[in-house]
User: Fold Phosphoheptose isomerase from Allorhodopirellula solitaria.
Amino acid sequence: MPSELSPNFRDYMQRGMDLRHSFSPPLLDLIDAAGRAVTRSLAMGGRVYFFGNGGSAADAQHLAAELSGRFKTERRPLPGLALTTDSSAVTAIANDYGYESVFERQLRAFAQPCDIAIGISTSGNSPNVVRGLEAAGEMGLATMAWTAQAGGRCAEIADIAIRVPSTSTELVQEIHAAIGHYICHRVDDVFTDRADSIPVLREVTGKAVSMSELLALREFWREAGVRMVWTNGCFDLLHAGHLQSLQYAREAGDVLVVGLNTDASIATLKGPSRPINRQENRVSVLAGLDAVSYVVLMDELDPCSTLDQLRPDFHCKGADYRDVPDAKIPEKAIVERHGGKVIYAPLAAGLSTTAIAEQLAEGQCSSV
Ligand SMILES: O=C(CO)[C@@H](O)[C@H](O)[C@H](O)[C@H](O)COP(=O)(O)O
Ligand SMILES: [Zn+2]
Assistant:
């Protein structure tokens, strides 16, 4: 460091460097989890709300603008919003309901459960930030608090609490901005609108998704030119034939989504003695396969309405459907109407869940 710097400034810079070096692996993991949580919300069609007071209000605006504008790479605009910027809303709510309501009331006006709320407070106890996080949690949003070491009430109530290990307000604020920039890097990695960002995205979303999350992902894939393959079934007793057809389906496009029949729909389709494995176990087994990109539970007896919404590029059926009349594959016309194609996976001879289940029931234990 140049010698003409004042001792105070030297000390300040040194404390900043020491603070960065003091980050423990669990804290770094938590910051990474924050990046994944924000990316997940954005990929699922959610918004990111930032709020705080004073310097933290500036951080909120700064980071929201990195999302709606640009960070480092060219990508689509993303919905980051600071709840500190609408002076009419802030002053009216403060005037009419009290300053502690300024973030809460805006969240109650705009937020949806797929969104994420980030409250920034060095004390961790500013009432308006606490109230904002409480309201967001009540509304089902993911919540995050960025605080100093003590954490305060904000850290107690947030899903993810990042306590910067310092009591110095200004140093803590600088780290908050750095955390925000790290998150922006993470977001840029996924929203490059290129197919090779898909594995990064799946790492943050996990494989088991709800139908509404899948619909948001589908929009994302469409814009990124990612080809989606769909297949559906019960996948009750997984056998080699399933693996082969899933592999075939996966190779037809960029992501393979498996629509997995719920327990209730299988009982309706195949009788009350099925399924053998409950849906949460069937989801886990499928999610463990490399070929499967995403799993979504499906309650309908046929996938027509689901495919009408998802509009997959490919819909994979078993080869035994190749020569049946179109009327037996009612979803075929729907897929084709949206520009998709039905493909047929070769069948592995002699392998079927029903045959295995029947053999077991009859006490025949010959290998299939
Ligand atoms: O920027 C600074 C101090 O560096 C100040 O403006 C500071 O943000 C304000 O005093 C805030 O009101 C502090 O609120 P909080 O961080 O405790 O929630
Ligand atoms: Zn400041």
